[in-house]
């Protein structure tokens, strides 16, 4: 949801961290009034809820639309957040919130 709503806010966000998510509709990113906050996507390659393909599709679509996207895949992780994901998310938020 953050990937769909965040970029459509009139006031830009500092950044978006997406854990185990996907992009519902790439077409909404093409709106000319869309802001483009930096994005970090983190996903487990064993996620039974949101397949890893959703992560790759979101990353490709966001990159095509001009977003700065960082990403990480946690090997063996299901629909959860591991220590590596927490560290990466915290570091990303520290940088974008400065």
Compile the SSE list and pairings:
Layout (H helix, E strand, L loop, with lengths): L1 H4 L10 E4 L19 E6 L7 H13 L4 E6 L8 H15 L1
Parallel strand pairs: 1-2, 2-3
Q: What is the structural class?
A: alpha/beta
Low-confidence stretches: none
In whole angstroms, the N-to-C terminal distance is 24 Å
Query: Assembly type of the shown chains?
Result: single chain
String of helices and strands: HEEHEH
Number of DSSP helical runs: 3
If you compute it from the alpha carbons, what radius of gyration comes out, rounded to the nearest whole angstrom?
13 Å
Rounded mean pLDDT is: 93
Largest sheet features: 3 strands, parallel
Tell the overall outline. Answer: globular
What fraction, in percent, of the residue positions are helical?
A: 25-40%
Walk me through what this model shows.
- Helix content is 33%, strand content 16%.
- It starts with a helix and ends with a helix.
- It has 98 residues and is an alpha/beta fold.
- It has helices at residues 2-5, 52-64, 83-97, and strands at residues 16-19, 39-44, 69-74.
- The longest helix is centred in the last third of the chain and has 15 residues, at 83-97.
- It has 3 helices and 3 strands.
- Strand 2 (39-44), helix 2 (52-64) and strand 3 (69-74) form a beta-alpha-beta unit.
- A 3-stranded parallel beta sheet has the order 1-2-3, sandwiched between helices.
């Amino acid at each position: 949801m953050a990937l769909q709503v965040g970029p459509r806010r009139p006031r830009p966000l500092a950044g978006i961290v997406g854990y185990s998510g996907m992009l519902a509709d790439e077409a909404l990113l093409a709106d000319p009034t869309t802001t483009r906050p930096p994005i970090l996507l983190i996903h487990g390659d064993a996620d039974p809820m949101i397949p890893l393909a959703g992560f790759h599709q979101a990353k490709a679509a966001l990159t095509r639309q001009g977003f700065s996207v960082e990403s990480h895949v946690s090997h063996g992780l299901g629909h959860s957040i591991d220590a590596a994901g927490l560290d990466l998310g915290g570091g990303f938020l520290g940088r974008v919130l400065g």
